[in-house]
Structure formats: structure tokens, C-alpha cells
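Quick one, C-alpha cells below. Sequence please?
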């Protein structure tokens, strides 16, 4: 399991030029279609769990527990607040276990009996709530382990991402610093979190789902 630390940014016509100027090397371009799944009552996403299928493989992103050492003050914590951190699980049995745990809790909360057949029924209740294709250009920088992705989604949305992939328990502080340095090189100035593809997709296509996630401070 790894932890993805990521800062999204608004990319514009100058971003490519800036990447070139700071010596970023293009790793290539690829295209993938993502399908995201949840129960009809949004039980996974309301727990900030994002289950998707990409290129035939299942992936689950879950919240990490914040590292106390990150809770510094001032500029450092502002920079850290601009970054998201999610555990990325790609092992199918583990994904199934995590999803089942949520579904089981939901069944128990609603005082349903959770017989294996009912759990199966809940699992079968997972529906695809978002599907879109992304064209991604990836760049690597001198800064070790940092990747910059420029994404263009098929619903007319662009976003940039600076990301570092850490092994679980890896040095989060150093990852945040690398992202901050890279953001500086790219000349990113804003201190507001930038909306990602899913944020934009739900806002445009599923306002009810979007509103629930906003009201629970998931998005
Ligand atoms: C975690 C999450 C979602 C799942 C999609 O995550 P994201 O990293 O935006 O997608 P993508 O395509 O770049 O995945 P990658 O190829 O890097 O693995 S959708 C919403 N969230 C929650 C979330 C959040 N609350 N805030 C921010 C800044 N990002 C994501």
C-alpha cells in the first residue's frame, strides 16, 4: 500500500512553457477511462472512500490518519493544507474487505440483519456514479520522486497535479516540502485548494451527491 500526497493546481497555456523552463522531462502521454462506484446512498464517498476501475484494475483511495509532525504552524501548515493525502489500495482482496466493512456498518446502523446474502445484495448495489476519460501528460523533475501531471478530462476540464508517492509510513514532511518547492518553481501563488476532476464532475452532473459531500466536508 502506498500514500499519494498531491497538490492540485490550475493549469493554463503557460504551464507547459514553465515546466520546460524548470527542466521538467516529459514522461509521455496516456489516456484512461475511470469508472467510480458507490452505493445509491453514497456510503463510500461519505466516508471519503473512492472506489474506481481504471484500465481493468480496481483501486481504492482512503483517508490517511494525519501525522502529528505535520501539524506545524504558519506557512508550513498552510502549504500542507493545500495537499491531499490518500492511501491507495490496489490489492483486490483488501479492497473487497474495506468495502465490505463499510457496507456491513451501514447495514448494522440501519438495524438490518447482516446475513451473508444481504451483504452480497449490498455489494451488488454498487453503482457507477461517474465515468470519464482523461488524457494525462506526465513530467518528472529534478526533485526526487516528484511527478507533475497535466490532466484533460473529456467533460472539458483541465487540472494540474504535483504528486509524490510514499510507501506507508514514509517521510510525509519531506514529501510536503518537495511539493512546496515544486509549486514555488511553477510560480503557484494561490492558497486555496483547487477543485479536482471529481469535484467538477459531481458539481456539474450530480448536484445532490455533490451537495451531500460538501455538507459533510468531504469535498
Ligand atoms: C480522493 C478523491 C477522489 C478520487 C480521485 O482522486 P484524484 O487524485 O483527484 O484523481 P486522479 O485521477 O488524479 O487520480 P490519480 O491518477 O492521481 O491516482 S475524488 C475526490 N477525492 C477527494 C479529494 C479531496 N477531498 N480533495 C482533493 C484536493 N483531492 C481529492
Amino acid at each position: 500500500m502506498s500514500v499519494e500526497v498531491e497538490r492540485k493546481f490550475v493549469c493554463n497555456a503557460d504551464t507547459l512553457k514553465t515546466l520546460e523552463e524548470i527542466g521538467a522531462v516529459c514522461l509521455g502521454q496516456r489516456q484512461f477511462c475511470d469508472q467510480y462506484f458507490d452505493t445509491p446512498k453514497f456510503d463510500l464517498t461519505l466516508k471519503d472512500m473512492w472506489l474506481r476501475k481504471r484500465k481493468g484494475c480496481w483501486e481504492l483511495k482512503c483517508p490517511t490518519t494525519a501525522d502529528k509532525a505535520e501539524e506545524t504552524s504558519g506557512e508550513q501548515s498552510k502549504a500542507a493544507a493545500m495537499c491531499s493525502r490518500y492511501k491507495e489500495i490496489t490489492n483486490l482482496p483488501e479492497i473487497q474487505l474495506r468495502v465490505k466493512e463499510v457496507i456491513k456498518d451501514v447495514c448494522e446502523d440501519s438495524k438490518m440483519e447482516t446475513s451473508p446474502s444481504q451483504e452480497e445484495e449490498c455489494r451488488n448495489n454498487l453503482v457507477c456514479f461517474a465515468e470519464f476519460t482523461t488524457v494525462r501528460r506526465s513530467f518528472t523533475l529534478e526533485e526526487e520522486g516528484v511527478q507533475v501531471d497535466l490532466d484533460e478530462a473529456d467533460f472539458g476540464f483541465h487540472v494540474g497535479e504535483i504528486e509524490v508517492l510514499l510507501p506507508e509510513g514514509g517521510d510525509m514532511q519531506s514529501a510536503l516540502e518537495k511539493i512546496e518547492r515544486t509549486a514555488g518553481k511553477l510560480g503557484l501563488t494561490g492558497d486555496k485548494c483547487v477543485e479536482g476532476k471529481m469535484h467538477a464532475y459531481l458539481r456539474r452532473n450530480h448536484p445532490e451527491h455533490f451537495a451531500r459531500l460538501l455538507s459533510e466536508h468531504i469535498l
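The beta strands are 2-9, 25-38, 50-54, 57-63, 83-89, 127-140, 146-153, 157-167. The pocket of Thiamine Triphosphate is lined by residues 6, 8, 50, 61, 84, 86, 161, 193, 196-198, 219 (CB under 6 Å).
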